[in-house]
């Protein structure tokens, strides 16, 4: 288990559902992004870490249970699976209002230099803040 797990609420919006009444799978990317943004806002930047650019390099989602309009709000748990030199992996676990796990999304984010359009090493302060939410023994 991680040292700390960040938890937030994600609203299921009326327009998120497809014609079958299920939340469209692509919306889980938005849900994960919303949870990740809240995590950075509430846990990383408020810890005195200066905001730096990151980009999503890879994302995988395992869909475990359908989400409908009635399933929400969802609870998203966010923690860190791995911290490397210039990248880190975030796990997002999304549960419906009854506590059932609906999806698990893993994202690899990379520190990014806007001037060179290339990856850049993560600042020590970022690595330290992320480590508080990391599973054991994942920091390179």
UniProtKB/TrEMBL annotation:
Pfam families to which the protein is assigned, alphabetical: 4HBT_2
The terms under GO molecular function for this entry are: fatty acyl-CoA hydrolase activity
Gene3D superfamilies, alphabetized: Hotdog Thioesterase (3.10.129.10)
Q: Which UniProt keywords apply?
A: Hydrolase
Under what name is this protein listed? Acyl-CoA thioester hydrolase
Organism encoding this protein: Rhodococcus tukisamuensis
Which lineage do the record's taxonomy fields give for this organism? Answer: Bacteria, Bacillati, Actinomycetota, Actinomycetes, Mycobacteriales
């Amino acid at each position: 288990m991680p040292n700390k797990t960040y938890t937030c609420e994600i609203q299921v919006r009326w327009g998120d559902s497809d014609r079958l009444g299920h939340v469209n799978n692509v919306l889980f990317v938005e849900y994960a992004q919303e949870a990740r943004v809240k995590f950075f806002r509430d846990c990383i930047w408020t810890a005195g870490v200066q905001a730096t650019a990151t980009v999503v390099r890879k994302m995988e989602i395992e869909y475990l249970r359908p989400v409908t309009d009635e399933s929400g709000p969802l609870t998203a748990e966010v923690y860190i699976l791995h911290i490397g030199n210039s990248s880190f992996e975030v796990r997002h676990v999304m549960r419906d209002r009854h506590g059932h796990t609906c999806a698990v999304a893993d994202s690899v984010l990379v520190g990014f230099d806007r001037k060179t359009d290339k990856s850049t090493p993560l600042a020590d302060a970022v690595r330290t803040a992320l480590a508080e939410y990391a599973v054991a023994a994942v920091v390179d």
